[in-house]
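Budget justification note: compute hours in this period were largely spent on complex prediction jobs such as the one shown. Inputs:
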Amino acid sequence: MSGEPVERVEGPACVVRGHDIDTDRILPARFLRRVSFEGLEEHAFADDRVHAKGNHPFDDDRFLSAEILVVGHNFGSGSSREHAPQALMRRGFRAFVGGSFAEIFAGNCVALGLVCVTLSDADLARVMEAVELDPEHRVVIDLHARSVTSRAGSVDLEIHEGHRQQLVSGTWHATAVLLQAGNAIEATAARLPYVTDFAE
Amino acid sequence: MSPPKTLLDKVWDAHSVCELDSGQTQLFIGLHLIHEVTSPQAFAMLREMGVPVRFPSRTFATVDHIVPTDSRRRPLADALAEEMLVALERNCAEHDVRLFDLESGQQGIVHVIGPELGLTQPGMTIACGDSHTSTHGAFGAVAFGIGTSQVRDVLATQCLAMGRPQVRRIEVTGKLASGVYAKDVILAIIRHLGVKGGVGYAYEYAGSVIEAMSVEERLTVCNMSIEGGARCGYVNPDDTVLEYLRGREYCPSGVAWDRAVEWWRSLPSDPGASYADRVEIDGQRLAPSVTWGINPGQSVAVDERLPLLTSVNDEDRPSLAEAFDFMEFQPGEPLLGTPIDVAFIGSCTNGRISDLREAARVAQTGQVATGIKALVVPGSKSVAREAEEEGLPEVFRAAGFEWRDAGCSMCLAMNPDKLSGRQLCASSSNRNFKGRQGSPTGRTLLMSPAMVAAAALRGAVADVREIL
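Corresponding output:
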């Protein structure tokens, strides 16, 4: 019950362009009718892929082995469904490089040991172009050097510092960390007036 | 004397167990709400780790997303839905968690029943595997949505590892005109600040418009905080909140009530508290709002024309074009008079009794237009009972609306209530995302429940101010 440190992610990448891509699009709600996360990878971007009539990056053979997904702004907005990052993780993605991420999505990713990093708009545009030109080129995300290296060169990344700490120290599986507080949890509860039913 | 603090800081500090090495706070969660969609995997993880539920009495469960609104006969017709319901029943029984099930008379959308049962109280930290948990901030609670791994964390430890958000104070000044509702206020806020403007913030809603709102109206505003990117939104608790809470099942009574009130009155943000940002919105100038695009920030006043592609910068133009393309609308055209196919009144945003009353007030003035499917779905069994006592189902049925049973229904269409094909739906729900209402090509126009009722009668987008 603990996570492995995630300090660096290296692998081929794939670009899904567009902003405000919500979790309903990443995984439509009809696929949430199940009690496990197994098999969700088949349904990632199900409707977008139909709309794109075969032109969606997820249907492009050149990107089938991608492990890093490059996206625009506010990726993962809307529903808190962890099914969305689960579907992408089960498809082989280990990291996301974007303009910005919705907060609950980013939190869900770190809880799975997945990396979300952001770049400036100019750097992101260059990385997107580089990945689309050469899908086989391996992109490197380095959480210590805080850089993303692609055929476009090395650029500075930004990441929520708490998330970066959780990832590099291997404490992203929060349950184990939270349990360490032991009785301090009960002690905190006992100080809250509503937990003690407002007794004197 | 301690320096002035915001409500967010007071609640956060009171619930802080410790600071973690990551720099985040280990935050105690006072109320944990669960439902059938995002909890079964969390219980499975718990089982795998061999860890018990730490505080079973602080978690409450209900079933809402997959519930059919016509027949609730078990087993449910959808075998997958039945499997989810059985899993929830089994998990709650096994871990001693209180479940408000289909037969309880207290079932409903999780964000509707928390407040009406008095579970939601000022000063609590509240988490639920559902992004609309921000709703509960209407009571002056710090409430936010979480994913399934975090549901596991709360079950196992009653805590979350969280970074403290900054606070943006949003003051809505003046007084709302007739026909302008809480839904219009929050749609205007999201239009103004954008769908990602709230990332990293808690929104503190204030000002004369918010202060004049009922608790139910505040619930509507806080509900859609997440649509503006803010994981959490709240209103400082006042007498309106106290009056709402008095006598509710899970609220303290007697001497405990007096002590509770004393604590609750200490919670509002102090005068002089500092905010990371402040925004003012003139409530006087707000009109009924309607979304026209594929995110809740893309809205116009009902009598306003759709934006021109030239009205935004180069960077934002592709998103605007994508929305026009999906919705099959033209830049610069009016939305008023656009024919609709379906009208949906309900959801955690607008499925409460006051919403149904406003919609019924409009419904009683006419008949649902020919060919329009119009659904009214109460947010909970309790809302349904109250509506029945007031004769609202008869009003809706006489006008040609279908009166259904409680659940999330066509807000996200995980049950049999769905759009088909390219249908255009006037909806009182919270998301107009592509495919949100169950058809991959279906289209949604978000608006207030009264505006939905008006659209149902006209068979097209209408201005409710002309009916009231």
